[in-house]
Amino acid sequence: MAAASMETTMDHTNTPALAGQMMRQPLLISALLRHADRYYGSREIVSRREDGSLHRYTWRDCHSRTRRLAKALGALGVQAGERVATLAWNGYRHLELYYAISGSGAVMHTINPRLHAEQLAFIINDAQDSIVFFERSMLLLIATIAPACPSVKAFVLLGDAGERPDMLRIPNVLCYEELIAGHPDDYEWPLLDEQAASSLCYTSGTTGNPKGVLYSHRSTMLHSYASVMPDALNLSSRDCIMPVVPMFHVNAWGLPYSAALVGAKLVLPGAALDGKSLYELCEREGVTVSAGVPTIWLGLLDHAREQGLGFRSFRRAVVGGSACPPAMMEAFRSRHQIEVVHAFGMTELSPVGTVCTLQAHHLDLPEHEQRQILQSQGRVLFGVDMKVTGDDGAELPWDGQASGHLMVRGPWVIGAYYGQAANSALDEGWFATGDVASISADGYLRITDRSKDVIKSGGEWIGSIDLENIAMAHPGVQQAACIGVFHPKWDERPLLVVVRKPGALVDRAALLDYYSGKIAKWWTPDDVVFVDTLPVGATGKVLKNRIREQFRDYRLPTA
Q1: Does 414 lie in the same domain as 375?
Q2: Residue 456: active-site member
Q3: pLDDT, tens only, 323-348
């Protein structure tokens, strides 16, 4: 039986509805910063600058400077609904832009600076951005794309007073600190429609050109409320939160908003995301919660292992973006007593859709069974509904076995891509995520692959994530990716591409033998290729499309 649907029907009559008599205050992003100032004003925000130095101030200071920035945007002629872009790392000025742009009624457009120049120009032109804020390290990039971006009226360097990149021919360059210096902090946040657009983020997870996802104040606020709950990210004013996931990537998974909502200390690591830099910042500032993709955590764990280090305050690591290898979860747990919170989301989900925590009836289970549950992507947050369907569109049972196409819906799930007709991204009211997944009887989601990455062997599906997780558990493996390559009989067969740990001597035979007894025999990869590195994209995910292209003509060994 499929799980019961959330849909209900109602009898409609001509009887007028009785209106409630509560205050009608819209859900607006500016309210978060006003709240943090009023009730948690002395809590710190610590940022690492591009030169490595640390900047410190409070939520109250942040609110004051943000209001000055909002006035400066008005002086530049920025109108409601106008797109204002940021090319910036995780830092205090970027945080101020988050709130000033959206709070004033404009649309904050965060752009990934790791994309190549042609993609950046396409995104800026598609959004019709009028102003672009950028870091000093991106001067050459801005000089390259500026002539191809006619809608941009000004480029603003996120720098100190007096900093002017006159050595490059960038039109209409302004300096951030000079821009806000001439304005007082008496700006009054406008009372906007909560359905008004607040921010824009382009996804790199689609085929063809990037597509824009346009969030509203309402969707962002509802996502923020849901994400801080105990069975979600479990955030409070007692936490010190360090979003390692970039602020240009799905709004740093909402953490700049969540931290303000609960009044937590916020630590912003800038561009230095290597294991050593993150460890030092984590220990110095007393970070309790952090969030990032698996490749980031791999670097942090390697640094701690190589230097024989432990963690003083770090207790919870949120892992998303791609599946977290069980071996990594175990390393966090057994070596450092750090809880790994596995989550699933995407740009189109604002981004968090599910988070994995145990339910009451799981607490009496043996530890190995609990760990099996915690390796899943977890249960939906209230507000999100999900199902898996077969190729015919019929909903599949929630038995933990039936795999199909993952479909989601909810108040912070996309209805249409930017510039497209309303609800054009939906299939009968549901958004197809592009993931292949199953759902257990308890409602736990387990993603087995991306639809484009699933290996089709002899008409059967093989989940590449399961094969990668097993390989990553081998003590000699640093990273692993599994792709399907051509096979004359079976159409596709799995090829395992592996990066060895430094000094490890693991070979093909040992790795293939490692799969014995862990999976169905026919799932075992046909071959193993060892490489020095795996290609990683702008958001820290392994680029399987690059690996598939690299091994497009690979010939598997014959039996």
Answers
A1: yes
A2: yes
A3: 788 889 999 999 999 999 999 999 99
